[in-house]
Amino acid sequence: MLLKRQRPLPSLSWRLTLQIVGLVLLLVAIIAPLFYFLHEQPIVDALAETTQAEAIQKVENLLESQFRPVERILRQSQAWGAAGLYSEKDLDGFNHLMVPVVRNTPFISSVVTANQHGEEILLLNMPNGWKNRLTRVDEWGKRQQWLDWKDGLPPDTEWKERDYDPRIRPWYLAASAKQQTEDIVWSEPYVLVSTGAVAISASARWQNPNSTVIHVIDFDVTLADISRLTRTIPIGESGYIALLTEDGKVIGLPHLPAFAGDDALRTNILKKPQDIGLGKIQAALDIWKNEGGGRAALHFDDDSGAGWIGSVRPLKVGKQTFAIVAIAPEADFSTISRRLVYSALLALLAVMVVSYFVAQHIVHRVRQPLQQLAKESRRIGNMQLDEPVSVDARFREIVHLTEAQEHMRLLLLDARNTLEEANRDLEDKIIVRTHELEEANEEMAIILQRLRETQAQLVQSEKLSALGALVAGVSHELNTPLGNCVLIASTVETQQIEFEQQLKTGLRRSVLNNFLDTLRDGTQILQRNLKRAAELVHSFKQIAVDQSTDQRRVFDLRETVHESQVALSPMLNKAGCRFTNALPAGLLMDSYPGPLVQIITNLTTNAIAHGFEDLVGGEVQVSLAAGAGDPESDEDIELLFRDNGQGIAQANLSRIFDPFFTTKLGHGGSGLGLNIVYNLVTRVLGGSIRVNSEAGRGTCFTMVLPRKAPQKRPVDEEFEIS
Fold this sequence. Notes:
By secondary structure, the protein is α+β, with helices and mostly antiparallel strands. Helices cover 52% and strands 18% of the residues.
């Protein structure tokens, strides 16, 4: 609370001024986007769509003006062929009909006719005249005759060899495969070998009524006029239009400086948009495809974050679909001018100035009565309660505050009078409460004594519980060797009976050898199992004697820990844990082996129950700290008990030796195991104990024990409530 008072707070006038001005700015921030999205954006979209639709219509009209006449000419040529007005062997008749057609249709660059016998006539419109190519595969093979017509003179004839067959050309195969002569096949755009121009071909089949021979006629239509048109169509100030094939290649270049001139046309035609710097065209086309081919305005941003608007219109030519793509920056269609922006900023500044002075006026009318209220509050806080609260209030809320403050003054005045009366009765109540506390202290002393007695009983029960666990474990472990002994004895007895029967009827040497082998093996097994049982009994007997008598004697530390290990082995085997005794031999101690065994037992049991609860392959190790354990020295030893379990949480490290503290309350944990260890180490053996642990990295108990223990306390003083 003191920190809040020390922190500087803004004044009411400054806060109200900021809020009023901020409210004005918030309204402007709300109105501006609403104006843009409800007024400006629809206008921009409408202007852009109208402008782009006009440009797209120009390109579409051009394509219609080229493709539809070609189809009419192609059908007329079919009719001429079917009427026998020309054939693949009638060069003069073919040229007579087709030269006027090609001459009067500038976008038709060539016409070719071929039949199923490999006969072909090609007519090319060259800049300086006309050329014919005659092919007769079945008659001439690879030889072709070229005729060059110039200025009405007889043609120049030249023979060339070329591995060429018109019957395997795509235009011939596509048209000849049609069943109906009315079907027209449009090819995909390609580059003419003769001129390097981009063209598209239209072909159809025809057949003379008096013949079964199939003929195909094909017109090559150049697309140069498309790029010449698209390169002259700007959209807005920076927009442009392009024509793309169905597989996304450019056949109509846009109105950009990089595509001016015929060289740029030949270099960039039939390329992907992104390969020739038209990434925005590709972006608009991708959006159009992803949206299902709608005709709404397409919005996207370029690499600099500027907004663009695009439109796409498909055009069907045969089985192909061309895409006319028009794009332009949104800024080209904006109706917001700089003058309008500057005027709006000036108006906003004027509104902010006016709102500031209005806020100051409102603040002045509110601040004065609030200052009076603050003055009256300080007076009441100093307990000057005789005069009523007086404030010149101009607002209803301040009047309510004044009334509440006056009500508070009256309550404080009444409370002060009540407090004076209460103080007079306080001394009498203190005397009564003191007497009650003395009686309560006597009852607490009795309860504490009973608690100590109960704790001693619990500690003794915990000791007996550990000893009982050892008894159960050793009993279970003894079952195995004793059971083996009984089994072997029974086997030997059976063999003896059989041997006696054989002896009566006549003993064979093999029976005697078999009996002796069985007797020798059984004797060895009996010796091993009886030795194991004797070792268990001896270890448990020594531990039981030490724990029951708590006698002081000189003992070898390693041997005592080994006896504990043997007694604990059933419990360790059941838990899948390994016990490592790393103590040196010959380290003698004049102390109490019973409490030491109890310590090792409790620590091992605690490690199995807590450290290895969810782990497999646990290990405990008893060793000495580095440099300790000289048999000739009388210095204290530093005994280490480690496990590689899951460790102890940091929050519990300071409480693990407290009585009745356990993390398994209600699940078999009494909370006295480590408290017993602590009392045995510090009160019986005269040493100290500490613990180090990290979560997931095991636990290490370090016990500093004197080689010669001090005089043992009476039993009732070993354990106390701490």
